[in-house]
Predict the structure.
Amino acid sequence: MTVIVRDVRPGDRRDAEGFARIRTLALPFVLYTPDSVGYDVTHAHPDAHYRPLLAEQDGELIGTAQVGIVHDSPEPGQGYLNVYVAPDRTHRGAGSLLVRAAEEHLTALGARKLFTWVLDSPADRAFAERHGYRASRSAHFLRLDLAGGTLPPLQDLPPGVELRTGADFAGDPRPLFDLDAETTADEPSDVDQEFTDYEAWLQETWNHPLFSPELTSVAVVDGRPAAFSAARTNGGTGYGTVMTGTARAHRGRGLAKLAKNDSLHRASTAGYTEAFTGNDSGNEPMIAINKWFGYEICATEVRHVRELG
């Protein structure tokens, strides 16, 4: 009954399916598919040194880890490892082996500070603390029933505002990159990120197999994107908004709510039955917007950090 840790093999369908299955069991409110796992393996930025890991016991895949360097942060030497084991395969040592392999990879790359997300349960938090990690900020996963729930009615557009979809920018997504970069820079986080590489954004965001430009809604003012709600789908019934934000010059006008409502209505019309999103627990404006839509918190995670000497 030996547990081993190894790399996800690029192009290996069984590995991709196993990784997606374990992540979906552990985090049912985050969208994963085998295709998205395979894409992440082969399209990660080289400076991220991304290394997804699998824990395997007697031929059965039981645990996963996402490991890499936060390459788009202005602060060098920051790494991340997010470890999840299938809920019915815990207490077999897989988690500790994954942490050890991840830390060896990151320290060899010169990482001095390691970040990890941990579900807010006594067992998960104790696991992180035993491995030398201290709790930092928290975030919520939220779920909205699109099948049985009632969405707020679509709002009238303010003068000078029009709604478009991400697909309308297929010929030139650069304006959406600029808006995404600006809003991401203002997101509450203990890891600062700066989007400066347009080609990397195209690879990791725009061309990602989960990204849905058709369900991404954009509020446009004077011909320029002013607010947006970016959507992902899993090819089944799951839909998620992975970023909703407004340009600094247009905040306080309700444009993010307008865009997100439009996206949710079109997702419901397209047959998606579950909507997921996430919120930093300190982002009160976005929490208020999501409560207005009817989202309910379904889980909380706590970011933990370990500083290396």
